[in-house]
Write a structure and sequence with these properties.
By secondary structure, the protein is mainly β. The protein has eight helices and 32 strands. The two termini are 24 Å apart.
């Protein structure tokens, strides 16, 4: 490391005196379910999508579901729950039903946020309407009776659902014909008309099946545990119920959790998008209806999911294209940068999230009239959801993940700490270690390792503040749900290239180069101006420097001096003739801040600088401040965005 000073660094050592207990056993699943002449910019309207079918349900048109609410006479859980007291249907079920969970007709348009009809109308931009007829029934046998019967014990959900369905009459359900209007010709192929099988049953159980039945999560995309159980007939033999996967229905446990509808939204999603969720523990914090296998930030469907169902068509990122990208959630406009010949499997998506009110939501119990939550920095403890802006999603089959603007790093365990929100759980205290532009992990991904001979597997809930050595908690379920630093900003990390951090290199295919992008500005209408580079990658400015930090060292006659350090850029146009500029601003107590002054122009190989002209004598009296900012210039003198810090 080359330094511009003869003084020696006297860095203060930080220590953590913390012990380690794993948050959960390594490997344990967290599932709650079983990308000269500039090309012409495309118009700012979502292109007309080509109709694409769901796997067993059409992705366009109307689907009429039978919605079945079931409880047990001996249900032990929260028997007086206000949403669903034991022994009666959920609030609103029956003649007084007003569309709490699902609308009964397309014309109803209740606009309730926690409602299957509203959710899928919003996600599809009105192209798919799922309605339903709600029926409440007590299970035909007690839970204890099903448990005592060796025939039914291994699959209580299947048998309890089957017993109720086979007992229903045409009068109970408002007539059977309305539930068979779709013919399934095969996977991803449907046509209008009956085929003798019920189209969709959404089963909502009041309580939770205990672990003795095996791990079944809070829902499954079938009418029996983990897709098991044979088909059978209802309606006096007129309608077949396909009980397994890709069948006639889905199951949700814990209906008393309403208005939390993430599970039923997700399970219905299986009958549209299939069983492959394309998510795992390394993909936390992605907005997704199918992201239940990891800790997802919201069930707002991402560009990949919406395109797969024909609800949007991607705008393609062309070399030199400079365009304004509007809000994704309300327009469906997303840009794709794909590896040639590998569209759909190796690509980046550029989505602008502004949390605009949804035109489909009229009633929002949580006060947020949008499903578009991609950063929960200020939730659920109050305030509004976190950062707005341009987000990048990586599709590197078989997984999708958020490419966070605050970089990829190697993380290490720096100790452990009791969780103040759950004292029975001990959490790893992480620290950001070394930069790893390609193979490192963003802070939305799960970390695995061993500390004090104990394996751990945990998202980053708590990390060490390097300035104080103390643990810092993010109360809204950790950094996987966003920390306010993940959007790409014109005045922050605005360059996404093969040399930036994070690098535009795929996690599983790091040798493939798809292109680069530059965030130029955020417009007053909420759109974001972006320029794409897919061929001439070296024509993009340098990326923002990384790891800008300051330590204090002793100088002559007891002076205290700041030593600034950073991680060098690696762009070819930077390493071959680039420069580093260091700027300083001084503000004395009670006075206005001074002008920014250029205090040093350094060779690009420099990664630290000691400012010998600033001493503690200049800062006596308290309340004074010295601020620094730096930037990198390449050999063509194109500049990166500034990176700033307050030393004193």
């Amino acid at each position: 490391m080359k330094r511009f000073s003869l003084l020696r660094l006297a860095a203060a050592a930080l220590a953590a005196s913390l012990l380690i207990v794993p948050l959960r056993a390594s490997g344990q699943c967290m599932s709650t379910c079983g990308f000269c002449q500039q090309p012409q910019a495309p118009p700012l309207l979502a292109p007309t999508p080509s109709p694409r079918a769901g796997i067993v349900l059409p992705s366009h048109g109307t689907v009429n579901a039978l919605v079945l609410f079931i409880d047990f006479e001996d249900e032990p859980e929260d028997i007086n729950n206000v949403n669903w007291p034991r022994g009666s249907g959920p609030v609103g079920i029956g003649p007084a039903f007003k569309g709490l969970f699902i609308d009964q007709t397309p014309a109803q348009q209740s606009g309730r946020k926690f409602n299957i009809t509203t959710f899928y109308r919003d996600m599809s931009f009105g192209q798919l309407t799922i309605i339903g007829y709600p029926v409440y029934k007590r299970a035909r046998r007690t839970k204890a009776a099903y448990e005592a019967d060796s025939t039914t014990l291994s699959n209580v959900p299947y048998w309890a659902t089957r017993d109720v369905l086979t007992s229903l009459t045409a009068q109970d359900v408002g007539g059977w014909a309305q539930y068979d209007s779709i013919t399934t010709n095969g996977l991803y192929s449907q046509s209008a008309g009956p085929d003798g099988a019920i189209d969709l049953v959404i089963v909502c159980y009041r309580g939770f099946f205990q672990a003795k039945y095996g791990w079944i999560g809070e829902g499954f995309a079938s009418l029996g545990q983990s897709g098991t159980g044979g088909d059978y007939f209802i309606a006096n033999g007129a309608l077949k119920v396909r009980a397994g996967y890709y069948g006639s229905g889905v199951t949700w446990q814990h209906g008393i959790n309403y208005p939390d509808c993430s599970v039923p939204f997700h399970e219905v999603g299986h009958n549209l998008l299939g069983s492959s969720e394309r998510y795992n523990d390394d993909n936390g914090g992605l907005w997704s209806v199918m992201g239940q296998r990891a800790v997802n930030v919201s069930y707002c469907m991402n560009a990949y999911e919406r395109e797969q169902l024909g609800w949007i068509t991607f705008h393609e990122a062309a070399d030199g294209l400079e365009t304004d990208i509007p809000d994704f959630a309300t327009t469906g406009i997303a840009y794709r940068m794909a590896y040639p010949g590998a569209e759909g499997t190796l690509e980046y998506y550029f989505e602008n999230h502004q949390r605009l009110p949804s035109p489909y939501i009229k009633v929002a119990e949580d006060g947020i009239f949008s499903y578009d939550i991609v950063d929960r920095l200020n939730l659920p403890s109050g305030g509004v959801p976190g950062q707005k802006g341009l987000y990048i999603v990586e599709n590197d089959a078989p997984s999708l993940r958020v490419v966070c603007a605050d970089g990829r790093w190697n993380w290490e365990a720096a100790g452990s700490q009791p969780n103040p929100f759950n004292p029975t759980v001990t959490a790893i205290v992480f620290r950001q270690s070394t930069i790893d532009r390609v193979l490192g992990k963003t802070d939305r991904r799960v970390e695995r390792g061993t500390y004090l001979n104990t394996p751990y597997e945990q998202f980053i809930w708590v990390w060490r503040d390097e300035a104080t050595g103390l643990p810092t908690w993010l109360p809204t379920n950790g950094k996987q749900n966003g920390d306010g630093n993940d959007a790409w900003k014109p005045d922050g990390n605005n360059i996404f290239s093969p040399w930036s951090n994070p690098a535009a290199r795929l996690t599983y295919n790091p040798n493939l180069t798809l292109g680069s992008a530059q965030v130029i500005r955020e417009n007053t209408d909420g759109s974001v101006r972006v320029k794409f580079f897919t061929t001439n990658l070296d024509s993009i400015p340098p990326s923002q420097p990384q790891g800008f930090s300051a330590t204090t060292m002793g100088g002559y006659n007891g002076a205290t001096l700041p030593e600034l350090s950073w991680i060098g850029n690696i762009e070819p146009a930077v390493t071959d003739g680039g420069l580093v500029e260091m700027w300083r601003q001084v503000q004395l107590y009670g006075e206005q801040a001074g002008e920014w002054e250029l205090i040093a122009t350094l060779p690009i190989s420099t990664t630290s600088f000691i400012d010998e002209s600033v001493t503690d004598a200049r800062l006596t009296g308290g309340g004074n401040a010295v601020r620094y900012r730096m930037r990198v210039l390449d050999s063509n003198r194109r500049a990166s965005t500034d990176l700033a810090l307050l030393w004193w």
